[in-house]
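Whether sequence alone determines local backbone shape is best considered at the level of individual chains. We regard such an encoding as a compact summary of how the chain folds. The sequence in question and its structure tokens are set out directly beneath this paragraph.
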Amino acid sequence: MDNPSDEGVAGSPVGEVGAYIIVLGNEKGGSGKTTTAMHLIASLLHQGLKVGSMDLDSRQRSLTRYIENRKAWAAANHVNLLMPDHVVVAKSALDSVSAAEAEEQAHFEAEFTRLKAVNDFLVIDCPGSDSFLSRLGHSMADTLVSPMNDSFVDFDLLGRVDPQSYKIKGPSFYSEMVWESRKRRAMRDGGQIDWIVMRNRLSHLDAKNKRRVEAVLEELAARIGFRLAPGFGERVIFREMFPSGLTLLDMRKEGVDTQMAMSHVSARAEVRSLMDVLDLPMPL
């Protein structure tokens, strides 16, 4: 597997070819993918940008429920919260695989084309499993963000490790899928995908396992072409905000009156650090 990242970061500046596409993807649940997606959306909205969002997991609908909770909380509290232009792309119920994929692709392309044309950014939340819609979403990315819990359980998604030496034996199934998505993107329009692996639920202790995970991630990043980003710590606040649909970026803004503890301030700093690493192109 060659490293495609040496050719530069994907995409053109916003405003030239429509929305810049950010895809949240991996194939393991519980990694904080939806929380990350919602905080990226809120961060961009609070910068005065137009943001579209797509939920490709019509079964769990985690991002959709987050946004529905946000709308309900805003209405109940008479607060004008910023909202993305959101859609859900449903999985086809047709029996024929080819017919189902054709229906899903038609629905995806119609919504994608509309959202890309009228927004500065489009954030796509993919299912935590391999599917036709997930692969389609990945292949559209300018930036792909893959959150993972900071453990070898989640690292197995990316690469295979020798249990004795901790040397990398090779890329795993999800890395292979991203590679295929990069090839499809390059063949379609000559674009590249800037792949970011985000280490979530980082321990505050300098444990031996944490250092080992960091070492193998850095080695794999150099081999298959992704960048590492600091993620979110194991903080209760991220889970507590889901029922209200709020994010850390909404606190003390838009009429939201919420006490800011030191842990909240630190969590907001984590969100800002992620945005700095992503280094997204801003509108011209």
The two ends are 35 Å apart (CA to CA). The chain has one domain: 17-278. The chain has a mean pLDDT of 85.
